[in-house]
Backbone:
């Protein structure tokens, strides 16, 4: 019997434990039906609302600013969304494997700090005279080290992920200040020049890196046993454990991959700005907004890689449109906070409908 078949059997047995015992009358349909829209119908409405909001934003800015839909500006939006999208993909993997409980389940607040520290390492080594290979290797190793620290704190020390990753974020922020001395550290390498070139389809290479990362992760999560097990670990841990899946290994791996993606985001950030700058902590809210908003593009309102990509592009288009209209970008922060409240409230409401006796 395959592991997937074993998991399905264990899940069925787990659900059977919660069915009424023989002889106990089943509750009438009206007792279990949620008032108003059913859970599936409400999920469909919310998903449609997410797609509608994306199309509405594009249509609004296209009418107000015709240059919004030009090839050059679309490439700019993709470039502006690259760092946020890469970090959002990392958080999405943690959400998938850790579960929906943001306190005891999947959350990684250190990703913004990982971004700042990785960018600082890359730029500092460049200033010290090191080349592309050494800078990239050290930067990716930094991201992996942060991910390993998160994994160790959560899986071995058993610290709540919310507290563990918050502490690691502060560690990263302190190390970043040590390296940069709270100043802008310029960088110039052949790799940076290459990332700022225009690639196929007249799209910037930075944006294509985001698309490549999305494609790799989407195929892995959607079409391989690894993705099935990751969703099982986060959504049905008891059944996954009964099926022989190592929960600790999958949870630790999600933090490691998230840290690695944080290192990649650091390189892209330096390439986009031609320097390592302070203030990476300001990326925390956008990253969380991207991962949670991505649920609105999922059929079952669960974290997905494709949903996160769409959410990153949505927020990038919003910021870009505001810039073209000369509206303060500070409005974007308020909108991101409102979107987090809306998505978490909607998904929590669905969970309550599903759990209502």
Residues:
């Amino acid at each position: 019997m395959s592991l997937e078949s074993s998991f399905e059997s264990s899940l069925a047995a787990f659900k059977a434990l919660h069915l009424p015992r023989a002889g106990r009358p089943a509750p009438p349909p009206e007792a279990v039906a949620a008032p108003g829209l059913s859970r599936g119908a409400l999920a469909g409405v919310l998903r449609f609302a997410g797609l509608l909001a994306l199309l509405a934003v594009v249509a609004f800015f296209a009418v107000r600013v015709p240059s919004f839909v030009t090839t050059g500006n679309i490439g700019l939006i993709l470039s502006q969304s690259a760092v946020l999208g890469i970090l959002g993909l990392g958080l999405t993997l943690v959400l998938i494997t850790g579960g929906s409980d943001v306190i005891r389940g999947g959350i990684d607040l250190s990703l913004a700090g990982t971004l700042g520290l990785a960018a600082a390492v890359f730029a500092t080594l460049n200033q010290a005279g090191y080349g592309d290979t050494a800078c990239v290797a050290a930067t990716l190793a930094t991201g992996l080290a942060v991910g390993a620290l998160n994994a160790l704190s959560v899986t071995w020390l058993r610290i709540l992920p919310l507290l563990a990753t918050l502490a690691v974020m502060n560690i990263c922020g302190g190390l970043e200040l040590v390296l940069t001395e709270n100043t802008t550290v310029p960088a110039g390498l052949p790799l940076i020049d290459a990332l700022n070139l225009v690639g196929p389809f007249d799209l910037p290479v930075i944006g294509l890196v985001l698309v490549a990362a999305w494609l790799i992760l989407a195929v892995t999560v959607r079409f391989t046993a690894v993705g099935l097990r990751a969703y099982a670990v986060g959504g049905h841990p008891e059944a996954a454990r009964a099926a022989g899946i190592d929960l600790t290994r999958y949870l630790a791996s999600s933090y490691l991959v998230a840290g690695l993606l944080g290192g990649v985001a650091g390189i892209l950030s330096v390439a986009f700005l031609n320097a390592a700058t302070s203030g990476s902590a300001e990326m925390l809210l956008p990253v969380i907004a991207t991962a949670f908003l991505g649920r609105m593009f999922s059929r079952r309102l669960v974290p997905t890689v494709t949903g996160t990509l769409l959410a990153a592009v949505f927020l990038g288009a919003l910021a870009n449109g505001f810039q073209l209209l000369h509206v303060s970008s500070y409005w974007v922060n308020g909108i991101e906070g409102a979107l987090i409240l809306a998505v978490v409230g909607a998904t929590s409401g669905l969970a309550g409908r599903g759990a209502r006796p």
